[in-house]
Design a protein that fits this description.
mainly alpha
Length: about 70
Amino acid sequence: MTTNIGGTDRVVRIVVGLALIAFALFGPADIAWKWIGWIGVVPILTALVGWCPAYSLVGLSTCPTKPRTE
C-alpha cells in the first residue's frame, strides 16, 4: 500500500471529517438524516493512513513523487 495522499489533502480531509462528525454530534436534533455526519470518520481514517482506495481505483495521487531539494 503506497501513500497516495499529500499533506494538503490530508489536512483538508481531517477538517472535513471533523466538521461532519461535529454536525452529527451537535447538529439540530430534528434532522432525520443526522447519521450522515458519521461518514466523517472515513476521511479522517484515510488521512491518518495516507492511502485512499478511491484514488487507487482511478490512478490519482496528490502525494509528491520526488522530495523537494532547495
